[in-house]
Amino acid sequence: MLTDTAPVALVTGGARRIGAAIARTLHRAGYRIVLHYHQSAREAQDLCDELNRRTADSATLLRADLTDMQAVRNLACDALACWGRVHVLVNNASTFYPTPLAQADEQQWQDLLGSNLQGPYFLCQALAQSLTAQRGVIINIADIHARQPLANHSIYCIAKAGNTMLTKSLARDLAPHVRVNGIAPGAILWPENADQLSPKARDNILATVPLGHLGSVDDIAQTALFLIQDATYITGQIIAVDGGKHLS
After folding, report:
1. Do the domain assignments include residue 2?
2. Which of 28, 30, 85, 107 is the most buried (most CB within 10 A)?
3. Is the pTM of this model over 0.85?
4. Number of folded domains that form the chain
5. What is the pLDDT of residues 7-55, one digit of tens each?
6. Is 58:35 a contact under the CB 8 Å cutoff?
7. Would you say residue 18 lies in a domain?
8. pLDDT of residue 198
9. So which residues are the catalytic ones?
10. Each residue of 147-173: pLDDT tens digit?
11. Could you tell me if residue 177 is inside a domain?
């Protein structure tokens, strides 16, 4: 059973994949979890039920479209209303798809910038007072392609580059009371359309990873836990969890 003073973490995009792994890891570490989702309602409900079966009254669900600024403000207010405070914000929610220059349009720009940069920025703003009062932590999930552009994904890469500077800027602006760090995953999960990748294509991708194999969502989750609980003198850093791919 959690005490009334148990820390609270808001994890955006927490229903699946990396977000779900972070939510489970923080929950095991004694956090109450505010689980944000947008479209993955069934997966979010299943995970919330799982966490509450482990520990009663330890997880709750909130839905929001992070490209909608009023929805972002409502998400922050609703998250604070759950248990009266937020100690940790994990900006994990992300939209990812190709945008070849010749076909890219304004809607794609708004969608990719909104979910990867604008939404996280204004969520940080809305929760800054609570995070400051709790001497809290912000974790932004960036991408190694913020530094090494991925072909035909220019808008996404621009958004993640902005996310990286968001981390560094807020680390300065919110110091000394709030630490802000980022994690840049590399080859952790195959894309959701990975069935379109041939075995040879997968082998070619792994050949660019010095450690030679795919990582796991738990690699990201454990890094997040380290940055939240143990790295009390680290702020403004982006840690690449990529098997060394950034070296290639």
Report:
1. no
2. 85
3. yes
4. 1
5. 999 999 999 999 999 999 999 999 999 999 999 999 999 999 999 999 9
6. no
7. yes
8. 79
9. 156
10. 989 999 999 999 999 999 999 999 999
11. yes
